[in-house]
Structures are given as C-alpha cells and as structure tokens.
Amino acid sequence: MITITNFPRGARGLRVVWLCEEMGLPYRLEKIGYPVPDSYRAKNPLGSVPFLEDGDVAINESVAQLLYIASRYGPTPLLPAASDPRFARVLQMVVFSEATFGAGTNTLMAAHFGAPDADKQNWSVRMQEQASLQALAFIEAKLAGADHLAGDFSLADIAISTSLGVYKGALQKPLTPALDAYRDRLSQRPAYKRALAANTQT
Hints:
four-stranded mixed beta sheet; Glutaredoxin; Glutathione S-transferase Yfyf (Class Pi), Chain A, domain 2; 8 helices; alpha+beta; globular
C-alpha cells in the first residue's frame, strides 16, 4: 500500500493524497512533527515532506510522486497518454508548479518567516516577488477562461492549484479573481474534500 508521510496540514502532501482519492487508490497517511525525528531522516535524509513509500519505492518530491502514482497505477485520464495532444501541456504545468512557481514561493516564505527585518524586502526578495507575479500571469494565460489547464481535469490542476494555495495561504498574497475562482471550483471536487479532511485530521 502507498504510504505518504506529511506534516499535519502540509500542502504539498495534500496534492499526493488528493491524487490517490481521485484514482480510488488505498493509501496510508502518516503525519510527523517538526523538527523531524532521526528515525525519519534515516529513510529520508533530506527530512522533507511529503515522502512516498510503495513497496521498494521510496521517493520525495511531490511532483515526482504525482507522476509515479499516475504512471504506476494508471492509465488514468489525469495523465494523458504520450500520444494525446494534452500530454505535453500536463507535463509542462506539473513541473512548472514547483520548478518555477513553487520554488520561488519557498524563497519568499523563508524570507517572510525567517529573515531579519532588514532582509525581508531585500533585492532578492523583490526580484522573486516580481517573478511570482509573472508566474501567476502565465498560469492565468494558460487557463484562458477555461475550467482546467489542459482540457479536462488533470494532474496539472492538482499540482498548480496546490501551489496557488501555498502562495495565498502561507504568504497571504492575493490571487486574481480568475485564479481564485479556479481554486474554488477545484475545491468542490469530492476527492479534494476527502483528501483535505484526511490531511487536516490530528
């Protein structure tokens, strides 16, 4: 069975739980506190979450976990076949959710919560804030008034909407009305509601 280790309410672990719920896959959710115990670092030296274990597979990086689950337990319409014209768009936006947008959000959170007051708005932070705004504009352009990023609901939506939630929730940064509406639509999915309930239980 898939085991997902996550912090209580951890957003990036939520996206992995959400995928399992969408696909109807059994999983076990284990929650750990911070700082993580040595026993956890023994199997995941980075000490990061989420961490996925499935038989002999043990991997971090939530985007890799999404792609692993969809590929290992698919086929699923959430990850179109390579011959499908939507395949490239789904891959692009799944990776974009962390490589471009999410990574920048991590930098802003580190500055917001951990930097001395004199550094909270230094040059690097201001540059990253502008890069995040560009990323948001890119996401909105890819939506182009549609309900989803790649035609039908897909991994791209799970990945991107989670990153938008981190940006808005942890940093208290506003989203545009279109991106707010996009997140609100996705939050009504039954699988999302089940995943959120599981992720917030103590």
